[in-house]
């Protein structure tokens, strides 16, 4: 996947270098795809990166858990419905690979003190996009909405728990999302880089059988937090 992203980046860079000066930021730019946003419905796809974290609330705040997010990647589709000149409804289902490392204090070995929490998400966001007035071939926007996520790596059906090195979470989670981006109009396509925050509503943790478990007993709630960086092509 890194090679794929590298090739996409090189291809995109050459396209940007070829068109930035004459099409995007010149004094009198050539207006590309002038009627593109007047379509009632249009489609696209995205590639991107993510960094997932957990927001932890504790019964005893002095016994906190160190959560280290890892960089993952995203790929998915975009469906866009024009509601108004400046408002669009977007559905962006995607596949997200992510990971976190949880480090617990008080253990003498990594087997007990570290949990690698890998995740494969199918993410279903429904978003409203609020666009500004287009200037030449540039149009900034804000985006926000709600989403639901299916974690294919949740271990929710496992009878083993952390005493057997199984960290379990609920398979479904609900979130709200906020972000911003910019539409760049080229001769043959529209390119939209964006950054978005994901904030989980619900407690996702499945607790160990032992209510005094050193891994889950002190956790009051555990909710998703994430930053998504997507590069969308229409």
- Relative helix content: 10-25%
Binned strand content: over 45%
**Regarding CATH, which class?**
Mainly Beta
Order of helices and strands: HEEEEHEEEEE
Give the number of DSSP strands.
9
Radius of gyration equals 21 Å
At CATH level 2, the architecture is Beta Barrel
Spans of at least 5 consecutive residues with low confidence: none
Distance between the termini: 21 Å
Protein name: Outer membrane protein beta-barrel domain-containing protein
Keywords: Signal
Pfam family, one: OMP_b-brl_2
Domain Outer membrane protein beta-barrel: 39-204
Can you describe this structure in just a few lines?
The chain is mainly beta.
Secondary structure layout plus pairing:
Blueprint: H1 2-24, E1 41-58, E2 66-82, E3 87-91, E4 94-103, H2 110-113, E5 114-131, E6 138-151, E7 172-185, E8 190-200, E9 219-233
Antiparallel strand pairs: 1-2, 1-9, 2-3, 2-4, 3-5, 4-5, 5-6, 6-7, 7-8, 8-9
Signal peptide: 1-18
Organism: Flavobacterium dankookense
Keywords: Signal
